[in-house]
Design brief:
mainly alpha, 0% strand, metal-binding, protein transport
């Protein structure tokens, strides 16, 4: 398999499966990343881009708005991921 043709998300899933992690966990992670992407694309697009389409490119203010919007989503995603990882670790430890 040529890893150069994989998306970053596919590469992460491949690495997780190589490291012996549960395939289901990798699938859930991939689905979560897809949902995150779709969510911030929809929300940030509606919030930041005007529907006038006066210029063929994103305007400066729109670009800053998109950047901040995506940063907020990614920050929230990371915080939730850290909490999930801690809880998952606790559950695994109690099962041993």
């Amino acid at each position: 398999m040529n890893v150069n043709n994989l998306s970053p998300t596919q590469y992460i899933v491949l690495q997780n499966s190589k490291d012996g992690l549960n395939e289901e966990k990798a699938r859930v992670e991939l689905d979560s990343m897809k949902d995150l992407y779709q969510s911030f694309m929809s929300t940030c697009y509606q919030r930041c881009l005007t529907m006038k389409f006066a210029a063929p490119e994103i305007q400066s203010g729109e670009g800053r708005c998109l950047h901040r919007c995506v940063q907020r989503y990614m920050h929230a995603y990371n915080v939730i991921g850290e909490v999930y990882d801690k809880e998952y670790t606790k559950i695994e430890e109690t099962m041993e």
